């Protein structure tokens, strides 16, 4: 069977490029979505050439980065390639592969784009910091006791988050709680899905710059009664953001569950 494909920029695919090497790709989990894959092509002339006839075999170049997963972490499909190298000004194209339960995989092909130097992150996909001049800089070593302290701190944070989540679930047992927030703002014109996601990211970065919105925000959509709705990766993320937003003037970020939830809608078709 031939697999369905489209030629638009896939929505929701997030690619993080690291220096000196490493690529991480994530996609928000959706109901019935059982697999997410990515094929990344670097400086290739064509990714999905169209056949001249229905019987002609389509020959594609070999993907430079080929990954897929069925595992979901923190509400996302996360793919990592620790040794992949993408440099500034490289030409990149990718094919996103989405498979829902009991259906054929759907393939979306992106348009070609140049990699901007400003979009490359200094570090690694494992979260370790890299010195700017690693060849000449002296990087202090982390002792075993320091590693143990960090590990204990992370375990303590995880435990507190689990406790907070349990308490929140008990308090909201009779409510249909979502991971969605309401932004009291409007776009200058009606945006498509990608434009709205970028607008919301920029707006939130200005409001709460300490939050890594590229990792935290999963989706953005219009709310019927005004404003923009966003979905974050976890309930814990939502609770943290609501707490941080209490210090903002005019309360521009609120819980969408309390904002006429029966009237909101996501007008952007994922498929």
UniProtKB/TrEMBL annotation:
Query: Domain named CBM39: which ranges?
Result: 8-120
Molecular function as annotated in GO: carbohydrate binding
Q: Which domain of life is it from?
A: Eukaryota
Q: What is this protein called?
A: CBM39 domain-containing protein
User: Which organism is the protein's source?
Assistant: Anopheles triannulatus
The organism's taxonomic lineage, starting at the top = Eukaryota, Metazoa, Ecdysozoa, Arthropoda, Hexapoda
